[in-house]
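Quick one: structure tokens for this chain, please?
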Amino acid sequence: MKSRLAACLPLVAALSAQAQTAPMGRLFTTPGERHQLDIQRGLVAAPPVPVVEAAPVPQPLTVNGLVRRSSGKSTVWVNNEAQEGARNRVSGPAQAPRVTLTLPSGQKVVLKPGQSVDMNAGTVTDVDKP
């Protein structure tokens, strides 16, 4: 009996040494799941959420008015800002003038004073009409 016990002792010692060197860890969860549980419990601060800003929606362009001088120079008011005629071409007779606007996309639109263009839809509407 002593010989059996003496033969098993080295085996038990080897198993206990191996058990002491390898940490057992936690059962049933991965490190990511444990971190998520700690966040939900309030033990760890949540990582900051990146803020993604949306691109600004282009505002409609409205031709508020124009002045054509006898010298040939003209001033056009687009969205209540005066612009020199070199940027926007004025055409048509004095009774029915037209303004050619170049949109940021490169497209050209011909408008009368009092009209606006929606750059998203590409529609032209009168300011007086809804």
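The radius of gyration is 39 Å.
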